C-alpha cells in the first residue's frame, strides 16, 4: 500500500476565482482614483477661471448678467422705445399691411427706384404711412441719442427671451417703407430723416449681450447700408447730405473690443445655465443631461473653449475669418469621429464662431461698398464727372482699403451715363466679377447704381 500524497491547499489570494475578481477590481480602483484626481484638478482650474471672470466684472450668472446689462445701457428713452416696440408690433400685424406693403409684407418692389414708372401700391403705402406718421415721429424723436436702450429682460441662461431686440426688426421695416416712399416722391430731407433714424435704431439695440443680439444688430446695420445704396440710384442728395451719409457709414467700433464683449456675454449665459440652472435639456437619459454637466472636466473644457475664442478678433477684421476657421479646425478637428464626455458641453452650447465671424466680415464689406458708392457721387458733384478709376477717390478722402473687400479684392467699377459699383455675390464670396453683373433679387449680388 503506497503512501497518499499530502493535499496542498493554495492560499486564497492565489486561487483563480479570487484573481478573476481581484485583478479587474484593482484596475477599476486605479482608474477611479486617476479619474477622481483628474476631476479634482479640473474643478480647481474651472473655479479659478470663474473667479477671474468675476473679478473682471463680467457676467457669470443671471444677477451679474443683469447688472452688466444695466451698466451698459441707458434708461433715457426706455419708456418711449418700449412704446415704439409695442406700436410697431401692432402696426405690422395686419392682413392689409402684409398684402400691400413692401419690406413689412409681401408686396413686390422693383429692383431699383424709378419715379417715372408707376408704383401700383403707392396709394396704399402713402395712406398707411399717413396713419403711421405719429409712430414714425416718435422713432425720429428718440433715435438721435446713439445709446443702447435699456429694456426689461429676465435673464435665464441660454433660455433668456430677447423679444425687444427681435422686435426692433419691425421698427426697421417701418423705416424702410418710409424711406422708400420718400425716395420715390423725391423728398430727400424726409428720406434723410428715415436714414438717421435707422442709424439711431442700430445704436438703440446694440446690446452686445450674446451672439443672437449682435447678429440682429448686424442685420439692422445691413438694412441701413442697403437703403443708402438704393438711394444713390436717384440724383437727389446735396453735398452736405452726402457728407452726412458718409458719417453714418464711418466705422463705429473696434471689432476686437466688440468680439470680446459679445463672447463674454455669451459665456455668461452659458455659465448661468450650467452653474445655476443645472442645464434644462430633456434628452431622455436617466437624470437628464444634468449629470454630465456636473463633471468638472466637461465644465472646464467648455470654459476653455471660450477662453481660446476671446482673442480671435484682436488682430482686426482682416484676420477674423481666418482665425475663426483656424480655431474651429484646431479645437474641433480632433473630435471628429470620436466620442468624448468632455465634448458634450461644447456640442450642446458652443456658438457657431465661424458663421458669426463671416457675418461680421460681410457687414464690413457692405460698409466699405456703401462708403465707396457715396464717395463716387461726392466726386461727381465736385468734379462734374464720375471718376475713371476708384483710386481717384483719394481726392474725396478715401484710402485704398475703403474700396476693397476685407480679403483685399478691389470692388468692380464701371460707368457710362451712370456709375456702377459691385461686390461679390453671397453665393460666391471669393469671386469678384470682372464684368458688371445683373442686379439680383434679395441682395444676392451687391450692385450699386449711382446717378
Number of helices: 15
The biggest sheet, with number of strands, parallel, antiparallel or mixed sense and barrel status, is: 3 strands, antiparallel
Reading side by side through the largest sheet, how are the strands ordered? 1-2-3
Give the H and E element order. Answer: HHHHHHHHHHHHHHHEEE
Instruction: Tell me what portion of residues adopts beta-strand conformation.
Output: under 5%
DSSP strand count: 3
Which overall shape is indicated by the principal axes computed on the Cα atoms?
globular
- Radius of gyration, in Å, reads 30 Å
Helix content range of the residues, please? Answer: 55-70%
Mean pLDDT rating = 87
Q: Supply the helix-strand structural class.
A: mainly alpha
State the end-to-end CA separation.
Answer: 127 Å
Which regions are unreliable across 5 or more consecutive residues at pLDDT < 50?
Answer: 283-287
Layout: helices, strands, pairs:
Blueprint: H1 16-55, H2 62-71, H3 78-91, H4 95-100, H5 122-142, H6 163-184, H7 188-204, H8 211-231, H9 239-249, H10 255-276, H11 290-293, H12 296-309, H13 317-332, H14 344-349, H15 353-383, E1 412-415, E2 419-425, E3 445-450
Antiparallel strand pairs: 1-2, 2-3
Helix pairs in contact: 1-12, 3-5, 3-6, 5-6, 6-7, 6-8, 7-8, 8-15, 9-15, 10-12, 13-15
Short description:
By secondary structure, the protein is mostly helical. Helix content is 57%, strand content 4%.
Protein architecture, described:
- This protein is mainly alpha-helical.
- It is 57% helix and 4% strand.
- The protein has a 3-stranded antiparallel beta sheet with strand order 1-2-3, with helices on one face.
- The protein is globular.
- It starts with 15 loop residues before the first helix and ends with a strand.
